Amino acid sequence: MPMLSINRSLHLKILSGIIVFGAWEIAGQIPVSFGFPTFFESMAALADMVLDGSLLHAYSDTLRPLAIGLLISAFAGIAIGLWIGLSSWFDWLFLPIFIVMQAAPLAALIPLLVMVYGIGLTSKIFVVCIMAMPVIVLNTAGGVRNTPTNLKEMGRSFLGTEKDIILKVIIPSASPIIFSGLRLGASAGFIGAILSELKITPTGVGDIITYSRSIADYPSMYAAIFSIIVLAVVFLNLLERLEKLLFEGNVRGYASD
Fold this sequence. Notes:
The chain has a single domain (about 40-250), classed as Orthogonal Bundle (MetI-like fold), CATH 1.10.3720.10. It contains ten helices and no strands. The chain has helices at about 1-30, 40-50, 55-85, 90-105, 105-115, 120-145, 150-155, 160-200, 205-215, 220-245. The longest helix is centred in the C-terminal third of the chain and has 38 residues, at about 160-200.
């Protein structure tokens, strides 16, 4: 049964890719717009950028603020979310800050970050953190807060300390929601990394997108966008595998599985 489920999932993913890329190719052939290349034209441009090394060089600039920002957001976001979920006082004091951060328009905040931190690496890391951390904090806090009371009471009835309750009951119970927050936060972080390169200084993949658009090299522009989407999907799948590895008995599947 698990093997059939894995095969079905793989087949559905392949079918989904065929539908999306087929629709992309058809839309480019019509054409929908002069600035909308076909799928194969974009893939040819992607191959050219990989072979000449320009894409790899661009990612060496893009991945640095992205990796630092996501690491800070993950560790700090989970820690703050746990604290908010466990303490009503901390919830009342700090939760509104992250709600405002999530609702605030990032494009309006970028000029303020540039004024304070300049146009270097620090500003880009802050953009990634502002995008990623609120989602992680809010999901973690929600997962901790909604841990079933009977599970916590059962842990205490077995003479578990508060540390045991947190590490062995609350965190495993909240792990699906925490990892959902990590995946959503990572997706937002990728958006923040590219947005910072488009709005602060044109470096990395953002520079390829900006330059390709300026010279009407639309296949290269779409190829760069496609590459960052693929990287984000791979990263999110790795997070999903990590969740299954750490909390194997607590991963919730689909009802149709």
